[in-house]
Design a protein that fits this description.
One of its GO terms (biological process) is lipid A biosynthetic process. One of its GO terms (molecular function) is UDP-2,3-diacylglucosamine hydrolase activity. Keywords: Hydrolase, Membrane, Metal-binding, Transmembrane, Transmembrane helix. The protein is of the alpha/beta class. The protein is built from ten helices and twelve strands. It has a six-stranded mixed β-sheet. A hairpin with a 2-residue loop joins strand 6 and strand 7.
């Protein structure tokens, strides 16, 4: 991947440095060693891109390699983003200064301020934000809900991406403790337990076994759980990996719903909990069979677990009577400022509750991360969903 981005990254890195060097550095100092020192970060980052892109282990899905790329990317943006912002702000000020005689200072100060803010966001999101678990209280109201389920509490987790937590067992233990403190009636997990391989669960499986709810823990598969982004030796190895994941979830006490359903009972009332395998928009995998999963639940209040929120408009709304769908997948692109996220350009429904009349979709922002070890605004989410009549 870095090979394909190599030229773009070099442009992103070098052009702002060249501009700022001639715009500021040569005017601020005549000392040769300071001018040379200015280029050190650029030289080191260029060497890093070259090494990772062309000489490092060329297996994109290897856990350690992915972690190295992730942290290198953080430091890359930490040094380049502020310079790019400052360069753009000063360039914007050029025509105003030339033709309107506006002073350059406001544009420079704006660039410096925004650059400093970008540094703070990157540092906070990388070292604090990715473990800043956010317990969100959400209510879904429906007149179709059986009386006995009024006040029923569901904790939703999604997108743990356990391979990204390598070396940080305490964070996952904190997650489990926070979930259990909510005293849920039910825990559901809406896919992407691993990044690539089931062995990522080593060291975490026993901790995740500690998740407890009165009616148990249910899960579905996400696109990453099938291992499509790993360079498998053959199809048999890929199938064995998925089989191992299913066995481990069973050993953890999680009930995996693969295009099937279960009936939850409260007193004399019952609701249907339906789960489909990943049903994503291309190029994401499509293994779901909603018709099969729903068979036998006609007339019941239905909750659907489906990893990808695009499934809601593609099939769930037009072809079913599902009352509430729970999804994940988007991560909010791991970046959210107020109500804005780059995820909104890709997913019509990317965070929180969406309603079509009385039918709802809730999109959980997920727990883990893919690529960059970073979250800002789109904090790792524990959803506590209360059902009401």
């Amino acid at each position: 991947m870095l090979q394909r981005l190599f030229i773009f990254l070099l442009i992103f890195l070098i052009l702002p440095d060249i501009y700022l060097y001639f715009r500021f550095i040569v005017k601020l100092t005549t000392k040769c060693w300071l001018r040379i020192l200015y280029w050190f970060p650029c030289i080191l980052l260029t060497m890093g891109i070259t090494y990772l892109g062309y000489f490092a282990k060329n297996i994109q899905a290897e856990q350690q390699f992915q972690l190295v790329i992730g942290w290198f990317s953080i430091f890359f943006f930490l040094f380049t983003a502020p310079k790019l912002i400052l360069a753009l702000c000063t360039l914007v000020g050029v025509p105003f200064h030339k033709w309107l005689r506006w002073p350059r200072t406001p544009f420079i100060c704006t660039g410096l301020t925004l650059g400093l803010i970008s540094i703070i966001i990157i540092i906070y999101g990388s070292f604090i934000g990715r473990t800043q678990f956010d317990v969100k209280e959400v209510t879904y109201t429906s007149s179709r809900l059986p009386q006995a389920f009024d006040g029923y509490r569901i904790v939703q987790l999604s997108d743990i991406h356990i391979g990204s937590w390598h070396g940080n067992v305490s964070a996952i233990q904190k997650l489990v403790d926070l979930v259990n403190q909510q005293h849920p009636d039910l825990i559901v997990f809406t896919g992407d337990l691993v990044n690539h391989r089931t062995v990522e669960l080593d060291g975490f499986q026993e901790i995740l076994t500690g998740l407890k709810a009165k009616d148990g823990v249910y899960s579905v598969l996400g696109n990453h759980d099938y291992g499509p982004y790993y360079h498998w030796k053959d199809k048999h190895a890929e199938a064995e990996n998925l089989s191992d994941l299913k066995q481990r979830q069973a050993a953890m006490g999680w009930k995996l719903l693969n295009n099937e359903h279960d009936v939850l009972k409260q007193g004399n009332d019952s609701i249907a909990l339906i789960g489909v395998e990943n049903e994503g928009e291309p190029p994401f995998s499509q293994h779901g069979d909603l018709t099969k999963a729903m068979r036998g639940t006609e007339g019941m209040f239905q909750i659907l677990l489906s990893h990808n929120p695009t499934h809601w408009r593609r099939e769930v709304l037009p072809q079913s009577n599902v009352d509430l769908m729970l999804a994940g997948h988007t991560h909010g692109m791991q970046m959210k400022l107020g109500n804005y996220s780059p995820a909104s350009y890709i997913y019509p429904e990317w965070c929180g509750m969406y309603l079509e009349k009385t039918r709802g979709l809730y999109v959980n922002l997920g727990i883990g991360y893919v690529g960059l070890p970073f979250r800002f605004g789109a904090w790792p989410e524990i959803t506590v969903l209360t059902l009401r009549r």
